[in-house]
Fold this protein.
Amino acid sequence: MVRFSNWARGGFAADRPAWAFASGYQAALTRLVPALAGEPAALCATEDHGAHPSAIRTRLADGAVTGDKRFITLAAFARKLVVIASRGAGDDGRNQLAAVVIPADRAGVAVEPMPPTPFVPEVPAGRLRLTGVRVD
């Protein structure tokens, strides 16, 4: 028997593609990070030069995250942020990435709205500035 999360049920009940997209986005995040269950969340990966691992400049060092993200789906509504950050280069010279979950209301987190996207204008996106945000 297939079990659907509340987010997935929301997608089936959506009256327009944007809401189905938003519900599917939340269901996917909850599947990847089960600790997010029941909380609106946002994946924060894209930066000014993209989301490719080599483009990530947001830094995770000494238990804190500092950097800027953009094109964050549902940023203004998220209670939890899944932030992709660099721990520096590994022995092979490649960017070593980590994903950290940060409460959106933690000190050092600033979210600002971005203009609507053409493909789902009803679903807001935002920019994120992280300034020495402590992580658990």
Notes: The two ends are 37 Å apart (CA to CA). Helices lie at 6-13, 17-32.
